[in-house]
Design goal:
Layout (H helix, E strand, L loop, with lengths): L11 E2 L17 H15 L46 E5 L5 H14 L8 E3 L3 H8 L9 E6 L5 E14 L2 E13 L8 H14 L5 E6 L8 E9 L2 H6 L3 E2 L6 H7 L11 E3 L5 H12 L4 E3 L3 H8 L6 E7 L6 E9 L2 E3 L7 E2 L1 E4 L3 E2 L4 H14 L4 E5 L5 H4 L5 E12 L18
Parallel strand pairs: 1-9, 6-7, 16-18
Antiparallel strand pairs: 2-4, 3-14, 4-5, 5-6, 5-11, 7-19, 8-18, 8-19, 10-12, 12-13, 13-16, 13-17, 14-15
The chain binds tetradecanoyl-COA.
Tetradecanoyl-COA binds next to β6, α4 and β7.
EC number: 2.3.1.97
Function: Adds a myristoyl group to the N-terminal glycine residue of certain cellular proteins.
GO biological process, one term: protein localization to membrane
Length: 434
């Protein structure tokens, strides 16, 4: 995937019977990968008229160790932050999207449903639910003014969107107040008109007005300059449907029934004390998670309010499970995944792919492999078709063994106005954005 945020779907090669139980790693010399590497190197050579003007790591500075880590530019005095919005082309006007309003939430939902991230082959498009959008956009301390829309002046139709939410992100020993920027979307008919840079400048201005000077974001495109580049992995839960809709292919010398058998999971989780997280677990989960995340170079700095918001289960949005020791009642392990369906474009039989995305997982007593197998089991019971995970944190330790296959989706992570000297290994990253 080269031109979007992350993969609504990415075909994977299924294993054949000679390759034990593991999906074949995608051949790195495949045409797809060669093309991607070529495009990425073109992007490095490419002029970025907008991004070259921004306080982000520039390609020319990669490897220059004389540049210090930390903010690239100091904050400007608040009185010098522009008070009026940036100018849009005259047919358009700014709107602040009130996500509490059913009507506005519907408009945002429909804009994204029809115009947001697709895979390279345009077979799938993210279909974030309204409940999900409300969850993603209203964490503790959120600012309504950071939910920014663009409307056509005459019809009042919503044609573009960008959002920020506040977060404390730790980079090494520093906890930095940041905005997490997401849901940048321009209607398909208005692409390539340089609307995106204006929207990014406007969200930046509104973030600055709250005295916040850094941001974190992810994208499927290469921009100056990723702090790391992750890969998506996919674990089939409903292989027949995934093959029918073109998400995955039947491996060489594999039959459908063999494939179904390969991905079959037990009916119940194996770990004694594995149960859904509840409100009363928030303090213990916060301690567990804070302690676990402290080992990564970049991670969120979650307090109890954040944990309650981001991790307490919400139907069809976020699922969290933990292991409570049957003897001591200590909370020793935790796993979570969020629900992000994709529309299946132009298929006669299916319109929705139900995907679970691995979020934060912590193991202290239960081996991570067993914990994640239990997560797969509950996801399957909840009728998800596929379980996706990035190769961040300790995920690499279970991906192959639990029959995840590498996808073609790459996800680049970025910080705005914060320099990191060397790109991180994906296992040094403790941050998952939605
Ligand atoms: C302190 C606070 C700071 C806050 C801000 C922090 C930064 C936040 C940054 C945003 C984080 C967003 C996180 C997410 O939501 S990532 C999800 C992005 N959305 C999609 O992929 C949905 C489908 N695509 C679209 O809606 C459009 O293609 C978008 C809107 C993406 C671009 O519209 P369009 O195709 O009509 O292009 P243009 O003519 O207006 O503009 C072209 C310029 O835009 C640069 N471009 C293209 N794609 C992206 C991208 N994904 N991130 C950053 N920049 C991007 C591009 O390199 C070029 O600049 P330069 O190469 O010439 O320099």
């Amino acid at each position: 995937m080269t031109d979007n945020n992350s993969p609504p779907g990415s075909p994977q090669v299924n294993p054949d019977h000679t390759s034990e139980a593991n999906p074949l790693p995608k051949d790195d010399s495949s045409l797809e990968n060669i093309v991607r590497r070529f495009q990425d190197s073109m992007s490095l050579a490419k002029k970025h008229k907008f991004w070259e003007t921004q306080p982000v790591g520039q390609f020319k500075d990669v490897g220059d160790t004389s540049l210090p880590e930390g903010p690239i530019e100091p904050p400007t005095p608040l009185s010098e932050v522009k008070q009026e919005p940036y100018n849009l082309p005259s047919p358009y006007e700014w709107t602040t999207c009130d996500m509490d309003s059913e009507e506005t939430c519907n408009e945002v939902y429909n804009l994204l449903k029809n115009n947001y991230v697709e895979d390279d082959e345009n077979m799938f498009r993210f279909n974030y639910s309204k409940e999900f959008l409300r969850w993603a956009l209203r964490p503790p301390g959120y600012y309504k003014s950071w939910h920014i829309g663009v409307r056509a002046k005459t019809s009042k139709k919503l044609v573009a969107f960008i959002t920020g939410v506040p977060a404390r992100i730790r980079v090494r020993d520093e906890v930095v107040k940041m905005a997490e920027i997401n849901f940048l979307c321009v209607h398909k008919k208005l692409r390539s008109k340089r609307l995106a840079p204006v929207m990014i400048k406007e969200v930046t201005r509104r973030v600055h007005l709250e005295n916040i000077w850094q941001a974190a974001y992810t994208a499927g495109v290469v921009l100056p300059t990723p702090i790391t580049t992750c890969q998506y992995w996919h674990r089939s839960l409903n292989p027949k449907k995934l093959i029918d809709v073109g998400f995955s292919r039947l491996g060489p010398r594999m039959t459908m029934s063999r494939t179904i058998k390969l991905y079959k999971l037990p009916d119940q989780p194996a770990t004694p004390g594995f149960r859904k997280m509840e409100l009363r677990d928030v303090p213990a989960v916060t301690r567990l998670l804070r302690n676990y995340l402290s080992q990564f170079v970049v991670s969120p700095d979650f307090d109890e309010n954040d944990v309650e918001h981001w991790l307490l289960p919400t139907e069809d949005v976020i699922d969290s499970y933990l292991v409570e020791s049957p003897k001591t009642h200590d909370i020793t392990d935790f796993c979570s995944f969020y629900t992000l369906p994709s529309s299946i474009l132009g298929n006669q039989n299916y319109s929705i792919l139900k995907a679970a995305y691995s979020y934060y997982n912590v193991s202290t007593k239960t081996p991570l492999l067993q914990l994640m197998n239990d997560a797969l089991i509950v996801a399957k019971k909840k009728d998800f078709d596929v379980f996706n995970a990035l190769d961040v944190m300790h995920n690499e330790s279970f991906l192959k063994e639990l029959k995840f296959g590498p996808g073609d989706g790459q996800l680049h992570y970025y910080l705005y106005n914060y320099r990191i000297q060397n790109a991180l290994r994906t296992s040094e990253l403790g941050l998952v954005l939605l």
